[in-house]
Amino acid sequence: MKISGDINSARDYPRKSRDQRIGNSVIIVITVGVDGRPKACRIARPSPEPDTDRVTCELAMKRFRFRPATNAAGEPVESDYGWQQRWFYKGRD
Question: Which domains does the chain have, with CATH numbers?
Answer without folding.
Answer: 2-86 (3.30.2420.10)
